[in-house]
Write a structure and sequence with these properties.
Number of strands: 0
Radius of gyration: 17 Å
Structural class: mainly alpha
Distance between the termini: 32 Å
Number of domains: 1
Length: 151
């Protein structure tokens, strides 16, 4: 997967490839951990969290993006277009805001929420910084004159 001398991957700096791989693995592991937490709550082994449908859909989008990125890397392709990075940033920011809001709203009756959701907040914030690094490193939001161009 890290043979970056073949295919489209040779066009990207090696640190970008590693950070993208780390972020993809992070979202997959977080998705798996969310499933374990939900199943553990229903099995009575862990604290049962209420359903958050909006959060569920953001998690699914994040996991699908991470999975597709890993599949693309295996084919020596990588999609770091402005569209994919913008969607990734919006999804990851939504996940962080959703977790922080959930903890703040439920801390009184569910103090375990902070301990359980804190690693997700940390790793999702790391994903945001990885995406911002990719934007900076690849100058994704700059035009040919070097001016910022987001839209």
């Amino acid at each position: 997967m890290f043979d970056v001398d073949k295919g489209q991957l040779k066009e990207f700096p090696r640190p970008v490839i590693w950070w993208v791989y780390l972020m993809s693995m992070s979202v997959l592991l977080q998705g798996l951990a969310d499933i374990v937490l939900k199943v553990g709550g229903y099995a009575g082994v862990m604290v049962k969290f209420p359903w958050r449908m909006d959060f569920l859909f953001l998690t699914v989008i994040s996991v699908l993006m991470g999975y597709q990125t890993l599949i693309g890397m295996r084919r020596r392709e990588l999609d770091v277009t402005r569209n994919s990075v913008q969607i990734g940033l919006l999804v990851e920011i939504g996940l962080v805001v959703g977790d922080v809001y959930f903890v703040l709203q439920n801390y009184d009756w569910l103090p375990e929420a902070l301990v359980i959701r804190a690693p997700f907040i940390v790793f999702t914030t790391l994903n945001i910084f990885i995406l911002l690094y990719i934007v900076w490193k690849l100058s994704l939001f700059r035009d040919v004159n070097g001016e910022w161009k987001v839209f």
